[in-house]
Specification:
Helix content: 10-25%
EC number: 3.1.3.2
Keywords: Glycoprotein, Hydrolase, Secreted, Signal, Zinc
Shape: globular
Cofactor: Fe cation; Zn(2+)
GO molecular function, one term: metal ion binding
Largest sheet: 8 strands, antiparallel
GO cellular component, one term: extracellular region
């Protein structure tokens, strides 16, 4: 039975001029509750199912919920398991526990998109995760008692655990735990590497709770056993006002903390460096991260073993099983864990769009950066913009869908660094040894005559194929070829107007492979130009580059997409499973392509390319340099 002190604490947490058992007003917020009822269940962000603004405060004197330990990260950990014990005398199968952070989740900062003056609801921020009370398989329904385990990451604030009855559609608060917290909620966390604009530059971006008026961010780095260098970091953040719509501006909003980026320059090629992140406080002391390491990039054109991972549409999932009742991103951890287990066997990662599928629930970006931290903290983790990062009506994008949940690209462009001239236009080029990558932004116009089209041609034309023979194009949406069922129903087998405008550039500049996400499966085409296979080989290609191979590699973890039953003659291999591609350049004349399933890491599709520089120079249809008869 709760004490008077506990009840008073709970009342303060929920204070919004509300009385126990008061129905929270939702009239002005009702459009925010379920804006996507027509979508498939697997397309629905799990947090969007919660009708937060319909919440009822119904504290029950015989209900209780306790979380332990109260203090997390005593040994510097940024992740901890929390045990939750709950009791409720009138249990039902749809009772659930929400995790709120900050712990005080009252309605003092409610924001209404309509701007109408109505009495505010009691709760106007979504939990960061939730779990049903009977999740543990215990006899909660009969005994009214349960024990749950939540995995909590450091997210710059304290946490409270709230027991709800009434399901997700009619939630009623019946008990609230005491708050718990990490020892240092502001600690620098989740470093993510990315290539800089120069080949000998590595960027390190991380998140903390320290603004520049509290502490000075920097990176200490260098060779093991040598005196370290110090590099300063810039600091960015974004606000609710930066968001374009709901739920990012409303129930999904959560303070993202501060995003810091440091530029490590004049690196030696193929060299191991150690680094750690620091924040110098006003009293002169330094808050340190743990020590990490990375290997710098090879010199452009360097002849050495170089290995690249490419996938799209990973999403995020919870190791404690929370939030996963819609099978939203069922393969996310399978892919992440496979890549983590194989860290020694690749050098750089390209995640080509649709990262956490936060869809306007900003807390999920922290969850995603924590999930990929074992990879991104030691390998360059290059990203592209997808519809779930950028797409929002009347926001300057090419599409008017609401897939980003009102984020309109802001979290992705702030939380991850890419070497773009303008990160709001998420296209960029980068080199890695013998590879050159042109990463397009399919959320902005790519058609001939557009700014991006001119950039794509410049990127493709600028490569010295003598030194960097392997030319890769990538974008999130399928601008090439896909046998996906919804593309087939549209009769396009591509994003409309995709290859119509770009295929002449791929052909002219002899792009080896074009990669796409968006469609959640794996598919590889023959070398193709204008819907015609130009090489009938399946597993070994040599000689002249007379067509581009198109690969859909969107099976990074999200719910899988179906193929059409139509026989697409240009499709050589399809797989309805989660997986990723690995490219291995052995030298300037030999490239190995492998498609691996995430579940076992084994190769299920592969081919090789063998050729010399003269084969890249050779004239092909619509890919010939002009000549003269003059002697």
């Amino acid at each position: 039975m709760p004490t008077m002190d506990t009840l008073f604490t709970v009342f303060l947490l929920l204070s919004s001029n509300a009385f126990l058992w008061r129905v929270c007003h939702a009239s002005s917020y009702s459009p925010l509750i379920r804006s996507d009822l027509g979508r498939r269940p697997t397309d629905e962000q799990p947090l969007s199912k919660i009708a937060v603004h319909k919440a009822l405060i119904a504290l029950h004197e015989s209900a209780s919920i306790h979380a332990s330990p109260l203090l997390l990260g005593l040994k510097g950990e940024d992740t901890a398991w929390v045990n939750v014990e709950l009791s409720y005398p009138d249990p039902s199968e749809d009772d659930w526990v929400g995790v709120f952070s900050p712990a005080k989740f009252n309605a003092s900062d409610c924001y209404s998109e309509s701007g109408k003056s109505h009495e505010a609801p009691c709760i106007c921020t979504s939990p960061i995760k939730y779990m049903y009370a009977n999740h543990s398989g215990s006899n909660y329904i009969t005994a009214g008692k349960a024990k749950l385990s939540f995995q909590i990451i450091n997210q710059r604030a304290d946490f409270s655990f709230v027991l709800f009855t009434g399901g997700l559609e009619n939630p009623k608060v019946v008990a609230v735990s005491d708050p718990i917290s990490f020892v240092n909620p502001k600690a620098p966390l989740y470093p993510r590497l990315a290539q800089g604009k120069a080949w000998d530059e590595m960027t390190i971006t991380w998140t903390s709770g320290y603004n520049i008026d509290e502490a000075t961010p920097f990176v200490e780095w260098g060779w093991k056993g040598h005196d370290p260098k110090l590099s300063p970091a810039g600091t960015l953040t974004f606000t609710r006002g930066s968001m374009c719509g709901e739920p990012a501006r409303t129930v999904g909003w959560r303070d993202p903390g501060f995003i810091h980026t440091s530029f490590l320059k004049e690196l030696w090629p193929n060299t191991m460096y150690n680094y750690r992140i620091g924040h110098r406080l006003l009293n002169g002391s330094v808050v340190w991260s743990k020590m990490y390491s990375f290997k710098s990039s090879p010199y452009p054109g360097q002849d050495s073993l170089q290995r690249v991972i490419i996938f799209g549409d990973m999403g995020k999932a919870e190791r404690d099983g929370s939030n996963e009742y819609a099978s939203y991103q069922p393969g996310s951890l399978i892919t992440a864990d496979q890549l983590i287990s194989d860290l020694d066997n690749y050098d750089i990662v390209f995640h080509i769009g649709d990262m956490p599928y936060a869809n306007g629930y900003i807390s999920q970006w922290d969850q995603f950066t924590a999930q990929v931290e074992p990879i991104a903290s030691i390998k360059p983790y290059m990203v592209a913009s997808g519809n779930h990062e950028r797409s929002w009506p009347n926001s300057g994008g090419f599409y008017d869908t609401k897939d980003s949940g009102g984020e309109c690209g802001v979290p992705a462009e702030t939380i991850y660094y890419v070497p773009a001239d303008n990160r709001a236009k998420f296209w960029y080029s980068t080199s890695y040894g013998m590879f050159h990558f042109c990463i397009a932004d399919s959320e902005h116009d790519w058609r001939e005559g557009s700014e991006q089209y001119a950039w794509i041609e410049k990127c493709l034309a600028s490569v010295d194929r003598k030194q960097q023979p392997w030319l890769i194009f990538a974008a999130h949406r399928v601008l090439g070829y896909s046998s996906n069922s919804w593309y087939a129903m549209e009769g396009s087998f591509e994003e409309p107007m995709g290859r119509e405008h770009l295929q002449k550039l791929w052909q002219k500049y002899k792009v080896d492979i074009a990669f796409y996400g968006h469609v959640h499966n794996y598919e590889r085409t023959c070398p193709i130009y204008q819907n015609q296979c130009v090489n009938m080989e399946r597993y070994s290609y040599s000689g002249t580059v007379n067509g581009t191979i198109h690969v859909v590699v969107g099976g990074g973890g999200s719910h899988l997409s179906d193929f059409t039953e139509i026989d697409t003659v240009w499709s050589l291999f399809k797989d309805h499973d989660w997986g990723f591609v690995k490219l291995t350049a052995f030298n300037h004349s030999s490239l190995l392509f492998e498609y691996k399933k995430s579940r076992d890491g084994l190769v299920y599709d592969n081919f090789t390319i063998s050729r010399d520089y003269r084969d890249v120079l050779a004239c092909v249809h619509d890919g010939c340099e002009p000549t003269t008869l003059a002697s």
